[in-house]
TrEMBL record:
One of its GO terms (molecular function) is methyltransferase activity. Pfam families: Methyltransf_25. It comes from the Archaea. This is Methyltransferase domain-containing protein. Keywords: Methyltransferase, Transferase. Residues 48-137 form the Methyltransferase domain. PANTHER family: METHYLTRANSFERASE. GO terms for biological process: methylation.
Length: 231
């Protein structure tokens, strides 16, 4: 996995949320959560697993919406951030350290499994998706950064880069995992890095342009797609 050592450092966990989801990055956070809940619908009373949960950004939101949530990540410092968030909100999220390629759960344990901001880092996405599907009773949600979008240019300036996917690439991953695509959402014509680099007040204007482009058929230019698959 790209950046595995960097990702597990204490300093990375301390700075992660502030670096990625402050300023205009708040709009990225809001957009991702909106896309997720739009895809999965109501989660109250459902058993949900978040793979590569990081600082618990999605886990705590799902728990606050009534789900019984388990979060798994390889980074102890990241998990401790998630524990702190859950405690602050009085939520009972279970955070576990583990490898997403060998999840410590029986088959068909969870109603829903998700992996957000994860597939752009892995070298064997089909293997990870297969493992996520194994522990799900049916549905899995993940996202990809897209080839053919503005992300291609932005990607060149990233120290580690990101794995970019075409629709054909995603279909190959889905087929190799033995699951089927059932739904998708496309978003953010402009790459996330632009939003993070500017104040939220200015980013709102760019977000408006972004929405306008997609409303006239610009989904194919979206830099990120959220996919739902099922067994």
């Amino acid at each position: 996995m790209k950046g595995r050592e960097w990702y597990q450092q204490d300093e990375t966990a301390e700075e992660y949320d502030e670096w990625r989801f402050s300023r205009g990055g708040e709009l990225v956070d809001e957009g991702e959560k909106e896309a997720l809940f739009d895809l999965v619908g109501g989660v109250e009373g459902r058993d949900v697993l978040e793979v590569a949960c990081g600082t618990g950004r999605f886990s705590v939101e799902l728990a606050e919406s009534g789900a019984d949530v388990t979060g798994v990540d390889i980074s102890k410092p990241m998990l401790m951030k998630g524990v702190g968030k859950a405690r602050e909100r009085g939520l009972g999220v279970e955070f576990l350290r583990g490898d997403a390629k060998r999840l410590p759960f029986a088959d068909d344990t969870f109603d829903l499994v998700l992996g957000m901001r994860f597939f752009h880092l892995v070298d064997e996405p089909g293997a990870y998706l297969s493992e996520m599907a194994r522990v799900s009773k049916g549905r899995v949600v993940f996202d990809t950064f897209n080839r053919g979008s503005a992300r291609v240019v932005y990607n060149r300036f990233l120290p580690m880069g990101s794995r970019l996917y075409s629709e054909e690439d995603v279909q190959d991953v889905v087929d190799s995992a033995g699951v089927e695509l059932v739904d998708r959402r496309d978003d953010f014509v402009l790459p996330f890095g632009l939003y993070r680099a500017i104040p939220k007040s200015l980013a709102k204007g760019f977000r408006g342009v972004d929405d306008a482009v997609r409303s006239v058929g610009g989904d194919r230019l979206s830099s990120v797609t959220y996919w739902m698959v099922e067994k």
